[in-house]
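Hello K.,

You asked for the raw outputs rather than the summary table, so here they are, unedited. I folded two proteins back to back in the same session to keep the settings identical. This is the first:
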Amino acid sequence: MKTSADSVRDYLSAVERESSALPADRRQELVADLTEHIEVTRTERPGTAIGEILAELGDPRTIAATALAEAGHGTAGDPARSGAGAPARRGKVHPLVPLLMLTLSLPFMMVFPDLPGPLFGVLFRITGAVLLCTSVHWVAVQKTTGVLLTAVLPTAVIGTWNLTDGPSGTPALVANLVTLALLVCTSVWLWRVRRA
């Protein structure tokens, strides 16, 4: 079982690892500041779980990116974002784009059953999965779940369906509608849990 000391050590190690581009003295100062903040917060609020305190501090990657931006690393060439308090890292693609691509991949295949419908559907699904995986708006677990539910599972179901009965008749329509409902529900869930 993981103790609170282990959680703090893992968190600080992650910050140190993510901020490896900083000079050693600045990196040590950052970790010392975070350690002090954690200790002060635990003293002031003794009943608060360590996980809650670490969550309030934020993602180690974001903390490191902010420290790098303040030190003048990582935002070169963009004066609007080089100041203190600037966003650490912004997504280049709006979070709605991968969700729409993943969701619309199946309707392309259903509406245009002959080429180019399936081709566009597969391209949408692959591109949507790649954009989801490279996005800054979700954590790794959410990305993995999203890709499994919107790309891998529907592809496996459609592939299995095509190899067994073929996509004709009412059962194919029901299977496609259930798959579409899975895509929509997963996309709605991903939209709700995204980071701003």
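The second followed immediately with the same parameters:
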Amino acid sequence: MPGVPYDDDAPPLADLMPWSVAPPRLGRGWPTAPDAACLRSRWEALLRAGGAEREALFEPTRARTPYTAVGQLPGRSGGTEKLARASGPCPEPVRVLAAPFDEQWLIPDHRLIDAARPELWRVADDRQVFVVETPAAPGTGRPLLLATSLLPLLRPGRIRPLYRRPGGREPNLAPGLLEHLADRLGHIPDPEDVLAWTLTAVRPGPHGPVVPLTGDAGRWAAGVAAGRRTLWLMRRDGERPKLPGGRRPYVRAPLPPRPLTVRYDRDEEALYLDEGRIAPVPPAAWNFETASGRVLEQWFAARTGPAEAGALAAIRPAAWPQAWTSELLELITVLALLAEARAPGPEEPVSDPVGVAGLRAAGVLPVPESARRPATVLDHQEEGPEGQFALL
């Protein structure tokens, strides 16, 4: 890719974080939404319907119909009777990463999801960090790794959990990697340090992302510090980020009840939602792109785009919720700060490299096949279809 040289000896990300999972596949859009209340309304509308009407509203696929028998999602309390005769309240929606930097809600019911990837649900907790591979943004030539505490629904990239077991146990790193890095750096790094370094050092390779590693303790510390900030901004699960005083975005003109258009004025550094106005909005936030397009435009489209009349997805908030405005202000802040943290670094080879040849000599590579498979984490029975317990 232009401007970003390959490092022939840099280890592939697929070897450094060997266990990966394909992203969940919903098969239908209506079980996700930017607003949790409308998901409950969609569920109620589905259950009020019966027979052929319920089946049509459900939007069946080859993998799921209202008559499909499936087990419970790990860690969730959704029902397991066939959806054709289901009753009762909507399972409590959970927060998910529906698109790059777009946090939405999902009805966590296995009967609604074509391919839920239960192995991801089993290790999802407040210690977990999911790393998502995404294609390079236009003109950058660099792959973008997203890190999130939420279950990611993004396609098509692979998902690499940082930990193989709940509670932050057993890092999903090549066996022996931490110990080998300790020999080179003089201290054993934390798994999140390795992830932080990865977020800043990742490069394109001929067969997927590669991560140049270093045994230079000073270079490592600088890269980890930068990556830790990126990780904090992406996860957004601690203290809320803020731009410096005078650069913080505010609503300068009230947003209309149902904005339909979004545009950016570079001279004013203002974001307009119809006649509503938010400023200042740094150009870097507006210009922030992933492979699928400009983040702010896609975030807005996910909340205002058309939906088929009569479909469950057409059940939406009657007016723009205040919560969306707060989320938009925070997203602008995060994108502006990430753009600074994401500024291209020097492309020269890292000093004191830790390459594939050295990792092979140390026995870290090749990775054993067991490290590419999920760990056995079941410590209780999971409810199978129609209330039967799954065989373990």
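The first strand starts at residue 32 and ends at 33.

Happy to rerun anything if the numbers look odd on your end.

Regards,
P.
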